[in-house]
Automatic annotation (TrEMBL):
Chain coiled-coil ranges: none
PANTHER family, per the entry: NAD(P)-LINKED OXIDOREDUCTASE SUPERFAMILY PROTEIN, NADH-SPECIFIC METHYLGLYOXAL REDUCTASE-RELATED
InterPro entries listed in its UniProt record: AKR_Detox_Biosynth, NAD(P)_OxRdtase_dom_sf, NADP_OxRdtase_dom
Residue stretches making up the NADP-dependent oxidoreductase domain: 15-307
Organism: Mucilaginibacter gynuensis
Alphabetically ordered keywords of this record: Oxidoreductase
Signal peptide coordinates: none
Protein name, as recorded: Aldo/keto reductase
Length: 340
């Protein structure tokens, strides 16, 4: 694999990120330790160095497995990203949320499980609608100044919160968020309304989770393999089936697997993108790794973009009206006056 800079930083990471939510066998599914080690071996042997986990994944087992693996390899080769926010201690009312107390406690526990003195990237996992963003940023900046965290990032948070946070951090001289993790795939493109334009503005790298839409874009649900997916999931409706069929058609034309097409699509959307690819089998990872070897043609991109297109809503669609597209600003203002 080649390496990319993560956001507006000098941190070099592989063009695919290994997702480890499936490391551990809690809840009756996932990869055991030996399989997880084999997956990380395959990833590292392919040049991968960017590994994503969270304090809550498999109730901490994911971090423990990664910690044991990395402690027996070159720690400095790997870029370890973990997250805090979600509940991992039911005896403490402050063991969840974005507050500083939970942040500090969670980081200390993650450092122990990962068997490391520092985290390369710490994500806020999900916005809690309670904690002030300045409390979050000051806490993250303190951790960075202490040497326990190298870079701050954020996940599953409204665009206006992230924008306010990075603007405040720039004003105060605090560390800014360099990466944004959100759900993004051809079946889930709503991040294009606000989140992705915001990330582009601030020079943040987007790390899409579920870039294969839980496996839907591999075509396996077309073959009748429902797996653990819920019947009411938007990954099984008529629109997702139409999108998946288009992905399969493009894959057949290119002589590659549908997963290659779906992953590469997220990397050719005009912004810095490093998809998070999860795996519970070595064969799954090996197939996903091949996606970096292909490039979608303009024709294929147009086909996939068209079949998966969403409404941007207001003001996105308002800005994209014909008058604006043709640079007819007089016509644009005429329309505005009529609406007023």
């Amino acid at each position: 694999m080649k390496y990319k800079l993560l956001g507006r930083s000098g941190l070099k990471v592989s063009e695919l990120c290994l997702g480890s939510m499936g490391f551990g066998t809690e809840a009756g599914w996932g990869a055991d330790k030996d399989t997880s080690f084999a997956i990380m071996d395959a990833f590292a042997n392919a040049g991968g160095n960017f590994i994503d986990t969270a304090n809550i994944y498999k109730l901490g087992t994911s971090e423990k497995i990664i910690g044991e693996y990395v402690s027996n390899h070159d720690r400095d080769h790997f870029v370890l990203a973990t997250k805090y926010t979600l509940l991992d201690n039911r005896t403490n009312v402050n063991a969840s949320g974005n507050n500083r107390k939970n942040m500090m406690r969670s980081v200390e526990d993650s450092l122990k499980r990962l068997k490391t003195d520092f985290l390369d990237v710490l994500y806020l996992h999900i916005w809690d609608n309670i904690t002030p963003i300045d409390e979050v940023l000051r806490g993250l900046d303190d951790l960075i100044r202490q040497g326990k965290v190298n870079y701050a990032a954020i996940s599953d948070t409204p665009a206006w919160v992230v924008a306010k946070g990075n603007t405040l951090a720039e004003l105060m001289g605090w560390s800014q968020f360099i990466a944004l993790q959100v759900e993004y795939s051809m079946i889930a493109r709503t991040a294009e309304r606000e989140l992705i334009p915001m990330a582009k503005h601030f020079g943040m790298t987007v790390t899409p989770w579920a870039p294969l839409a839980g496996g839907a874009l591999t075509g396996k649900y077309l073959r009748g393999d429902q797996g653990r997916i819920k019947p009411e999931s938007n990954r099984l409706n008529d629109n997702s089936v139409k999108i998946t069929k288009a992905v399969v058609e493009v894959a057949d034309e290119m002589g590659v697997s549908p997963s290659h097409v779906a992953l590469q699509w997220t990397r050719q959307q005009g912004f810095s993108s490093i998809p998070v690819v999860g795996a519970t089998k070595v064969s799954q990872l090996e197939d996903n790794l091949k996606s970096v070897e292909i490039t979608l043609s303009d024709e294929h991109l147009q086909k996939l973009n068209a079949v998966s297109a969403i409404s941007l809503g207001f003001p996105g669609d308002f800005f994209n009206e014909d008058a604006v597209k043709t640079n007819s600003f007089g016509g644009f203002y005429d329309k505005v006056e009529k609406r007023i």
